[in-house]
Write a sequence for this structure.
């Protein structure tokens, strides 16, 4: 099979991880390409009028990994780094994540190569609507359901939903998740990923016998996932001693005021400008001593260059793909020192509550917030238990165990269904 269309360092990571799991599971060579390579990939051009009158065309993508368990599900990323290899890797990770959590979805991901922070609100709306318009032939509530990711938010989801609904001539809330409550969203979705990360960190601390009120944490990334994780950990008594975003990194061993940081970002859109005294270099922050290190921004930040220097007890992967396979090998040597909560387990709260949102939209029956979080924590608890039990039993890393569970689910469904999906 000629697979040259998917390339780049992030895709190579997903491919390498899959090869390791496939070897561990002894998957036949002839079954591997079908499990790894996406079912479909779309590339679209999205022209918009800029505020200065120019017409600019942006490149958009959507990758649907497999349709074996139901519709595909996945976020849409607006970032300058977006290419089809990165989107394909994120779609593949979504598949293992959904399967590990027992959700009836395959993985998908989409994105546009654009810096959303450089667009005006009107330009962002035009681009969001145009992207959905181009996607209409390929998505649907029972085909592929979109959600937010880096660089997109509730408002973008509302524009997606509205554009799709205008085309259909009726309101179809269930086409996207992560919408505002006023547009058919669910209670709890905005906080779901970060609260899920904090729940699992809490379980890992218990597992290691560390009291939350004596623990410290450093969080990289202060967007949806990073800021809610920091806030939720602080509410559990954890002292947040470091945070960063793409504009600044801060470190204060006495603890940072997370609510104050959130207020600053709400007002200025970034962490820069909070304080001059606690500034630190972004790379130094990652290797400062702490109990919990949460990468919650971009891929490939824990690498062969810093994996041996990281000084945490728990590495909680809020972001997708923050640890390279080379770094993984180093972390595996440090299993007794560092407890890894791998991305497909650690940040699954987002897609789990997205699933709840889709179910509520389809049924037109909305739940109380307590029901959302009770059900979320039950699923996360089961995935956590399964992952650590399998890792222990087969003497493999937590990442390998979590992926093995996910891949096994997809593999079993493909075996029973045949070649189509
Ligand atoms: P976001 O756009 O809300 O926030 C991203 C944050 O990362 C911003 O604070 C940005 O400044 C920061 N950042 C960007 N580059 C950085 C760098 N080089 N160093 C430090 N910080 C940097 O995005 P998000 O939704 O919070 O997503 C963050 C990560 O979590 C992504 O990997 C995403 O795929 C993953 N994720 C998100 C969700 C969700 O529900 N939003 C769910 C699961 C996983």
């Amino acid at each position: 099979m000629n697979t040259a269309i998917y390339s780049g360092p992030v895709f190579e990571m997903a491919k390498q991880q899959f090869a390791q799991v496939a070897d561990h599971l002894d998957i036949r060579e002839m079954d591997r390409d079908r499990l790894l390579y996406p079912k479909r990939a779309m590339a679209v051009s999205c022209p918009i009028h800029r505020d200065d009158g120019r017409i600019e065309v942006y490149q958009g993508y959507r990758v649907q990994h497999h349709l074996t368990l139901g519709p595909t599900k996945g976020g849409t990323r607006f970032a300058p780094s977006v290419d089809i290899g990165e989107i394909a890797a994120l779609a593949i990770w979504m598949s293992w994540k959904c399967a590990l959590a027992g959700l009836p979805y395959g993985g998908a991901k989409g994105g546009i190569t654009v810096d959303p922070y450089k667009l005006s609100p009107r330009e962002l709306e035009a681009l969001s609507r145009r992207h959905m318009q181009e996607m209409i032939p390929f998505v649907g509530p029972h085909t592929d359901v979109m959600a937010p990711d880096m660089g997109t938010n509730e408002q973008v989801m509302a524009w997606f939903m509205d554009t799709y609904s205008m085309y259909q001539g009726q309101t179809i809330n269930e086409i996207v998740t992560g919408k505002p409550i006023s547009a058919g969203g669910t209670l709890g979705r905005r906080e779901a990923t970060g609260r899920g990360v904090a729940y699992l960190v809490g379980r890992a601390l218990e597992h290691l016998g560390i009291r939350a009120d004596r623990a410290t944490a450093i969080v990289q990334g202060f967007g949806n996932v990073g800021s809610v994780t920091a806030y939720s950990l602080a509410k559990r008594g954890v002292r947040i001693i470091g945070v960063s975003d793409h504009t600044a990194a801060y470190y204060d061993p006495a603890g940072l005021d997370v609510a104050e940081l959130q207020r600053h970002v709400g007002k200025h859109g970034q962490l820069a400008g909070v304080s001059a005294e606690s500034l630190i270099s972004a790379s130094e922050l990652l290797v400062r001593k702490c109990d919990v290190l949460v990468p919650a921004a971009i891929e490939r930040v824990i690498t062969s260059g810093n994996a041996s220097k990281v000084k945490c007890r728990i590495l909680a992967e809020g972001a997708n793909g923050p640890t390279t396979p080379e770094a993984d090998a180093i972390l595996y040597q440090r299993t007794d020192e560092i407890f890894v909560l791998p991305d497909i387990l650690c940040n699954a709260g987002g897609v789990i509550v997205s699933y709840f949102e889709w179910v509520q939209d389809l049924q037109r029956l909305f739940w109380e917030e307590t029901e959302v979080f009770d059900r979320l924590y039950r699923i996360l608890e089961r995935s956590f238990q399964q992952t650590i039990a399998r890792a222990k039993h087969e003497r493999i890393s937590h990442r390998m165990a979590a992926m093995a569970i996910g891949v096994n689910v997809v593999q079993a469904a493909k075996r029973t269904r045949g070649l189509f999906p």
Summary: The CA atoms of residues 287 and 310 lie 4 Å apart. Residues 36-171 form a domain with the Rossmann fold fold (CATH 3.40.50.10860). Residues 148-151, 193, 220-226, 244-246, 282, 296-298, 318-320, 347, 350 surround nicotinamide-adenine-dinucleotide (CB under 6 Å). The mean pLDDT is 97.
